[in-house]
Amino acid sequence: MNHLLSIKDLSKTQLLELLALAKEIKANPQGYSQALAGKSVVMLFEKPSLRTRVSFDIGINKLGGHALYLDQQNGALGKREPVSDFASNISCWADAIVARTFAHKTVELLAEHGSVPVINALSDMYHPCQGLADFLTLAEQFDDVSKVKLAYVGDGNNVTHSLMYGAAILGAKMTVVCPLGHFPDGQVVCETQALAKQHGGELVLTSNIDELGEQDAIYTDTWLSMGDNTPLADIKAKFEPYQVNEALMAKAGANYFMHCLPAYREVEATAAVVDGEGSLILQQAENRMHAQNAVLVTLLG
């Protein structure tokens, strides 16, 4: 494991080891307080962030390392100077690069031209750190995460892709329900179906919300991804049948609700569900730090 660009690059053993290490770091933070002593991590952010920036910055500090944050005030990646120059220059000083970018190609170029590990903190195609945090959260609720029935309802996006890869590699069953025209990327679907078959999992895709079936947890995300300026009114009628509400949770028999945040109450999910007893949203948010720290320790420790 030289980088973390996508969950699809992990073997089942690597994925399970990361989840186990994240649990250990969470339970015993003092044991890892010097794991990154003397290490510096540069965080390149093209997009705004709350959870990603704070969880990485504080997480690196808790591991005894130093985090340096760079936003677009320093020049957009690839415009002020080539991404290859960003990567090679930062590699002269830093021990790792965390990148939150618009295009996944940018993350790939950083990994290609740099000489230090690169962690994808979000791109248009994947959000592996979120996916790891989500499966860590599920692993804290279920003894065997491969037995979990997870549903994703809403807009197929980078989070959906990472969840699909994770579920497929773990051998779990995942159901993805999206409006027509908003399904996950076709290549991702083909790859995850092959991985699910290989590992004994199952991937179901449908646009019919009535085919949701029995689920342990239902996951949703915003109907409009960050940077999408489409007026909500233009898609509201198409997405309203996919709102996660108490009736949908009850029909599926789902005990848990998940969301990567920010959440818009009474839009993609009702407040009763988002803030309800079975909501795991804050556990997911906290686990971003622990999952990312497991990645950092694996790459640098």
TrEMBL record:
Domain Aspartate/ornithine carbamoyltransferase carbamoyl-P binding: 3-140
Keyword terms: Transferase
UniProt cross-references to Gene3D superfamilies, sorted A to Z: Aspartate/ornithine carbamoyltransferase
Enzyme class: transferase
Official protein name in the record: Ornithine carbamoyltransferase
Ranges for domain Aspartate/ornithine carbamoyltransferase Asp/Orn-binding: 147-298
Domain of life: Bacteria
Residues in coiled coil: none
GO function term, MF aspect, one: ornithine carbamoyltransferase activity
Entry-linked InterPro entries: Asp/Orn_carbamoyltranf_P-bd, Asp/Orn_carbamoylTrfase, Asp/Orn_carbamoylTrfase_sf, Asp_carbamoyltransf_Asp/Orn-bd, Orn/put_carbamltrans
Family the UniProt entry places it in: Belongs to the aspartate/ornithine carbamoyltransferase superfamily.
Enzyme Commission identifier(s): 2.1.3.3
Pfam family of the protein (one): OTCace_N
